[in-house]
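question for whoever is on the cluster today: can someone run the full assembly for these? two chains, 199 residues total. i dont have access anymore since they changed the login thing
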Amino acid sequence: MKNRLKVLRAERDWSQGDLAERLEVSRQSVNAIETGKYDPSLPLAFRIADLFGLPIEDIFLKD
Amino acid sequence: MTMNPAQRRYLGRMVVVSVTYVAAIFLAGSLLPKGSPATPLSVAIALLPGLAVFGFIWAIGRYFSELTDEYLRLLEIRKALVATALALGVASSWGILEIYTDVPRLPVFWVFPIWCFGLGVGAAVNKLTFGDGGCA
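^ ran it for u. tokens below:
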């Protein structure tokens, strides 16, 4: 699944570590999600959406 | 890389269980000559290191359940699956070899060390497929 995490993070000038800290996950997790190696669970996807104040479908896109 | 709380607890438990395991091995080795008759007492003493092995497995299970980071948990579970596949595969294949050929017997004792070795293989598989080995 594609996602706009890297762009959204860059818009806020956050490093992967900053985003990981806000989501309470590891930096490895953020990197794996950003690069499309790992699709987050629905609860984590909602946490990401809440953090950016966007609907999930504006962050995660169908292939 | 800094350790998360689950990793710290896991490491602490592994240290305690490892010390217990080594102490139990020394105790069994010093009290029981090799090939001692199987009496209730000798069996109880010889099983002490086995209890420590259960401790290792318990610590690993606790670690899986305490890891709150779902991606890291995925990596750890994948390592355990690779380790299980390797241990079962090696034990079963060697067992078949023992039935049909005169290869030396593989003591069942080795199944858990093979499984632990498999965790390392699993970390390598994770590294190749995800780019991350895991966290323990």
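summary bc i know u wont read the tokens: The interface with chain B takes residues 24-26, 28-29, 32-33, 35, 37-38, 40-41, 44 of chain A (CB under 8 Å). Helices of chain A lie at 5-11, 16-23, 27-34, 42-52.
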